[in-house]
Design brief:
The protein has helices at residues 14-28, 41-54, 67-80, 94-99, 106-115, 139-148, 157-166, 226-232; strands at 2-6, 33-36, 60-65, 84-88, 119-126, 129-131, 134-138, 173-178, 183-188, 190-194, 216-221, 247-252, 254-258, 262-265, 268-272, 275-286. Helix 2 packs parallel to helix 3 and helix 6 (139-148) packs across helix 7. It has two domains: 2-116, Probable inorganic polyphosphate/atp-NAD kinase, domain 1 (Rossmann fold); 131-286, Tumour Suppressor Smad4, CATH 2.60.200.40. The chain starts with a strand and ends with a strand. The mean pLDDT is 93. It is globular and about 60 Å long. A six-stranded antiparallel sheet has the order 6-5-16-13-8-9, with helices on one face. Strands 12-11-10-7-14-15 form a six-stranded antiparallel sheet. The chain contains eight helices and 16 strands. 30% of the residues lie in helices and 31% in strands. It is of the alpha+beta class. Pfam families: DAGK_cat, YegS_C.
Length: 289
């Protein structure tokens, strides 16, 4: 028995379309499953938990949605040690990108999930909350706060508008970053604690991050001018920003950050700093190409 968890509004309705497709795919192969769709994220999490309580030996969970649904489902599947597959239906889909799957060849992903065994990968654990891709604080979190408060525009454009609103008044903040072997005390514009390689729909903030090495890649963007930021920002989509002298990347299994700032993980609000995170080896069973 599989759990098919669907966020129908993910990707402006893409979740409903792909959820229907996946259900048909499972039906055509006479595979037993139960659809889980909640009224909201809390309800969805509760429904999934009840399913796992009823089926502790279930084969796995297939989540159709974006990184937000991934983040929700991780909190239930990891403690239960249930394998998880994610069908990319959101606007970012960065966890699926990190795993190496195509965002369009869904049949290949489903075939692999249904015919092969999963493998173990690392996850981040921040103050008791699991995350798959990136934990961050700084300018991107300020943009997230602004975007979440906006009712218009919809979709990815909302974040572009939020960037335009926040950048002119944004100021670097002071951070205390405690790593395995040292503490960094610095002004910074952005800090990304990376289990995966990308966030924000393909921004390769830590292009060399490895989800199987037991370590975070921690990217610190030291203060630069607004003009320089605008020049450097597009390079993040190819990962070439890491050669800029203001970019520092270090590796650490544990990271604690203190500042007057907010943190997000997998695009979901974690809350005010201070925070403490650890890379947990082999925390999740999933499928890779």
């Amino acid at each position: 028995m599989w759990a098919l968890v669907i966020n129908p509004v993910s990707g402006q309705g893409n979740g409903a379309r792909l959820g229907t497709y996946v259900a048909g795919y499972l039906n055509s192969r006479a595979i037993s499953y139960e659809i889980i769709i909640g009224r909201n994220s809390i309800d969805q999490g509760d429904l999934l938990q009840r399913f796992l309580d009823r089926h502790p030996d279930c084969t796995g969970v297939i989540a159709v949605g974006g990184d937000g649904l991934l983040h929700l489902v991780l909190q239930k599947t990891v403690p239960a040690q249930i394998p998880l597959a994610v069908i990319p239906a959101g606007t970012g889909n960065d966890f699926v990108r990190t795993l190496g799957w195509s965002l369009t060849h869904i049949d290949q992903l489903l075939e692999k999930v249904l015919t092969t065994s999963p493998r173990s990968i690392d996850l981040g654990l921040v103050d008791g909350e699991w995350f798959g891709a990136i934990l961050s604080t700084g300018f991107d979190s300020v943009v997230n706060e602004r975007a979440n408060a906006m009712s218009w525009p919809k979709g990815p454009m909302k974040y572009n508008v939020a960037i335009a609103i926040e950048l002119p008044s944004f100021k670097p903040r002071h951070y205390e970053i405690t790593l395995d072997d040292r503490t960094i005390s610095t002004e910074a514009m952005l800090i990304a604690v990376s289990n995966g390689r990308s966030y924000g729909g393909g921004m390769l903030v830590c292009p060399h991050a490895d989800i199987s090495d037991g370590f975070f890649d921690v990217m610190v963007l030291h203060p630069i001018s607004k003009l320089e930021f605008i020049k450097v920002f597009p390079k993040v989509f190819k990962g070439t920003h890491i050669s800029h002298p203001a970019v520092e990347i270090v590796r650490s299994k544990k990271v604690s950050i203190t500042s007057d700032a907010v943190a997000y993980a997998d695009g979901e609000r974690i809350g005010q700093l201070p925070i403490s995170a650890e890379c947990i080896s082999g925390a999740l069973s999933t499928w890779m190409p």
